[in-house]
Amino acid sequence: MDRRRFISNMVAGIAGPFAGVACAGARGGAEPVSGYGPLRPVKDLRDGKVRLHLPDGFKYRSFSVAGDKYDDGSTVPGRHDGMAAFSGPKGSAVLIRNHEVNGPVGAFGDKDKAYDPMAGGGTSTLRVTRYGEVITSAPSLTGTMMNCSGGPMAWRAWVSCEETVNGPDVGDDFSGGDNSKLTRKHGYIFEVPIGRAASARPIKAAGRFPHESAAFDPSSGAIYLTEDNFGFPSGFYRYLPPKHPILAGRLLDGGRLQMLAVKGAERKDLSEGQEPGAAYAATWVDIDDPDPEFKGRPSNDVAVQAVGKQGRRKGAAIFSRLEGAVHHQGTIYFVSTQGGATAPGDTAPDGFGQGRGQVWAYETWSGRLKLAYESPRASVLDLPDNVTASRRGTLVLCEDGDGDNYLRGLSKAGQIFDFCRLQPIPDDAGAEFAGSTFGPGGHTLYVNVQARQGMSIAIWGPWERGPF
């Protein structure tokens, strides 16, 4: 099949299974449903410890724990985050996984291959069975920083996103690390292909800002990008490469970066609570200087807003902490972690945004932006982060909440249900789910636990019994 026919086939059926979500459940109109039934503690098949609470019939195994060794003898870093699964030989899955490590702590793996030998983030590439047994493991992108999420690409690559603008040219960030020790600028996206080494070349035209996720639209070739700017407004972007990536076989630099705006409403504040069924006609404004040169080493707070402010000066919309994003049948679903209204009895979270989370749907074929869901209160959905989609048309939301953290499902009808609860980890209240992704054929849901001793987990069971 030639590449143009391949693209055409990929975009067929764009009005598919999520068509109902975009109008349902706004502001929590749909109450939680049972999903797969009540959750119970289940022992990890790796060592017998209880790490997850799951419905009856589901099993799991953790693997590739921080501190383990790769095949080359180097050490697996922590802060497991965004991840994607690709089909591998003999029914295996190839996982590419981020490590959200901040600060000038030194690169893991071979420092001679690192983008910045002083930066400790990057990606791992693993080949695993559908039961979470590791076959091969290796570092794949090193010397980057705060690799939070990203997205799988149709040409069998992962785009990894740096959620920072740290570098020797800007002031130190909240972590207290010394940016003067860094050798390169950070805040970019990087391509990590399967089957060959990552080039460690940033796609600078896609912007220098606190990137979170990337979602590829095969129809246009655009890469949709979210921004997680904790203390300030965030934007929803798209990068238009100079050549369609499927035709090029890779993601090229030198394209155009744009930011979403609402037609007829300059700087529309979509971080606030929305009415059920809220929908907007969207347009896009160009970012003239996606990779600004800073003079006089500005503060991190100034540098982290430099790209977003360009868009807002042209009328771009305001969001709160955009995190996970996924493409499904012509629609980009993306999460606003602190979007929405503060419910009575809930406490507004720290940072920009007063709510407990929104899920937005951007229809690439119509240019319409719709609210898919807004959390009515923390007990229903609490600060959603990464997101993926099942083959049957249900979203999986990873929580980053203040109390217990769940994997929640958002059905096509706009109903939220609990699928998995993380067993609290003593002395690690910040542990959270991240990087959920279904493996080949949908047999296994792979997910990460981002904790002081991070790990990946394979979950399998009677999926046919519920909406996933």
TrEMBL record:
Q: Which PROSITE patterns match?
A: PROKAR_LIPOPROTEIN (PS51257)
Domain of life, per UniProt, equals Bacteria
Write down the Pfam families for this protein, in alphabetical order: PhoX
PANTHER family xref list: MEMBRANE PROTEIN, SLR8030 PROTEIN
Name of the featured protein = DUF839 domain-containing protein
